[in-house]
Amino acid sequence: EAGVTQSPRYAVLQEGQAVSFWCDPISGHDTLYWYQQPRDQGPQLLVYFRDEAVIDNSQLPSDRFSAVRPKGTNSTLKIQSAKQGDTATYLCASSYGGGAGEQYFGPGTRLTVL
Amino acid sequence: GDSVTQTEGQVTVSESKSLIINCTYSATSIAYPNLFWYVRYPGEGLQLLLKVITAGQKGSSRGFEATYNKETTSFHLQKASVQESDSAVYYCALSGTSSGSWQLIFGSGTQLTVMP
């Protein structure tokens, strides 16, 4: 069984540039999560979906971040105008059965904003 | 609010020695938190090591164990004899429902280095 896949694995950009991250969850998993993990900190939830619906995006900086999961499978997280403070690893995870299911994590995308 | 605290950012232990990584939690809005230990081995993604959903119970996996202690709000990770292959970053986490949304809250992680 394939795990959670993410691309790209690395991204380096200047402040003000836009970037998108893509996640393909484990087949059959209805719930998908995006986390931000700054260096030397634990992952922090940004947003999560059950199928195509957003369940919780309260921690997503809505002025510059957006996330979609239009068909309830793959998902895209976009940063519209990156800031140095966005430098972090962005993790995608998926589970079956909502938040109570075990979450399986992808390898992450390491973003550096110069 | 709800939080998880890991006081040691880095721990170094010699092979075959015992290990304890401390974890305490605060669950103010989550009524019945589940507790987890996740691990990230070098070059790999974050993966679940063990979980305990009931206070007073112990979870174990790969020689590691942790007991859910509601009185001391602790979930320390222990191993009797570590191996070099245990070198990794370990994250304590809690989960549960808060305001209708499922939360998984991580500590800051502890880098374990096992010396040969």
| SS field, number of helical segments of chain B | 0
Mean pLDDT of chain A: 94
What is the alpha-carbon Rg of chain A in Å?
13 Å
What is the molecular shape of chain A?
A: globular
Percent strand of chain B: over 45%
Q: Tell me the distance between the termini of chain A.
A: 37 Å
The sequence of SSEs of chain B as H and E is EEEEEEEEEEEE
> How many strands, what sense, and barrel or not for the largest sheet of chain B?
6 strands, mixed
Low-confidence stretches of chain B: none
Number of strands of chain B: 12
N/C terminus separation of chain B:
41 Å
Assembly category: heterodimer
Largest interface: A-B, 25 and 21 residues
The secondary-structure element order of chain A is EEEEEEEEEEE
Question: How would you describe this structure to a colleague?
Answer:
The complex is a heterodimer of chains A (114) and B (116). Chain A is mostly beta strands and 114 residues long. Chain A is built from no helices and eleven strands. In chain A, strands 2, 4, 5, 6, 9, 10 and 11 form a seven-stranded mixed sheet that branches. The model of chain A has no long low-confidence stretch (mean pLDDT 94). In chain B, the strands form three sheets. In chain B, strands 2, 5, 6, 10, 11 and 12 form a six-stranded mixed sheet that branches. Chains A and B meet through strand 5 and strand 10 of A and strand 6, strand 10 and strand 11 of B.
